[in-house]
Amino acid sequence: MHLLSKITISIFLLAFTSCSSSKKAESKKIVEDSITAPLETKSDKISDCYRYASSSNKKPIEGTIVLQWVIDGLGKAKNIASKKNTTKSDELADCIAKTIKEVSFPKELATRTIQYPFNFTAKKKD
């Protein structure tokens, strides 16, 4: 049995307003937090996706899945697409994409295009 030992999450934003460098850094941090916090509410479901996808594999699933989506006016993710998948598990990527559809993002992020990498490292249960 394999356990998910770590999901490392980092954020890359494609759409961003221009402002001074210190204001831009502060504004970027606010936007990152506005994306990370809602996604963290679904961390259990993302872990379930990993466990489900791993159950049919002989080896643990490891690697990165980069998903891209646009946040609509209601704070929902639309046009979710996989931009990179080094895990070789379409099942895992599809499950995470379905989970992201359930997330409610702040409406202030409407029209932003987000690229978000999900990094998976597995280790065997002791």
Question: What do you see in this structure?
Answer:
The chain has one domain. The chain contains three helices and five strands. Strands 1, 2, 3, 4 and 5 form a five-stranded antiparallel sheet that branches. Helix 2 runs antiparallel to helix 3. The protein is elongated, with a radius of gyration of 15 Å.
How is the secondary structure organized here?
Layout: E1 2-9, E2 12-13, H1 21-40, H2 43-55, E3 63-71, E4 77-85, H3 90-101, E5 113-124
Antiparallel strand pairs: 1-5, 2-5, 3-4, 3-5
Task: Summarize it.
Helices cover 36% and strands 32% of the residues.
**In the residues, how many domains can be counted?**
1
Distance between the termini: 10 Å
Report the C-alpha radius of gyration, rounded. 15 Å
Helix percent reads: 25-40%
Q: List the helices and strands in order.
A: EEHHEEHE
Query: Ranges with pLDDT <50 over ≥5 residues?
Result: 1-21
Enumerate how many helices there are, as a single number: 3
Shape: elongated
Percentage of residues in strands: 25-35%
Number of strands: 5
